[in-house]
Amino acid sequence: MPRSPTLYNVNPPFVPPHHSHNKSVTINHDSVFEMERRFGFYLVFLPLLMLFFLSAVVTIEAGGWVPIKDVEDRHVREVAQYAVSEHGKLKHLQLKLDKVVEGETQVDSGITYRLVLTVEEKGAGTKDYTVVVVEENAKLHLKSFKKVVIKSESSHRAM
């Protein structure tokens, strides 16, 4: 059964000196009930929403290495191209990115990319390199560029 609106006649707690004391405020009980219902909803909904976002942040900030699913992604290729270009400038070599073989990322104060690249050096053929690039504040920084060394079984037996 719907509630009939209850009207209250309430004197305001403070009346400025220039106003009459005969003024009153009318409160509709149904609108008070509606406000209490909405407050209850937000009291339950907002903590759940905060918990959801905090769990996402904790997952991202865990700091573990996460494999890159699509190494052909435009941004991953940009990071790889930056690493090849920067290393070529530092070592005075003519290098060309052939492909991104695999990679992984780690989130910390920025995003660290660890990539395995196939790089073509003019006159020397292609070689695989492991590179580490850090992206912070939309700027890339090359941290390492190392040739991948594959140990053969015979070298393990000799040890």
UniProtKB/TrEMBL annotation:
Keywords: Membrane, Protease inhibitor, Thiol protease inhibitor, Transmembrane, Transmembrane helix. Residues 60-148 form the Cystatin domain. It comes from the Eukaryota. One of its GO terms (molecular function) is cysteine-type endopeptidase inhibitor activity. SUPFAM superfamilies: Cystatin/monellin (SSF54403). CDD domains: CY. The chain crosses the membrane at residues 39-60. This is Cystatin domain-containing protein.
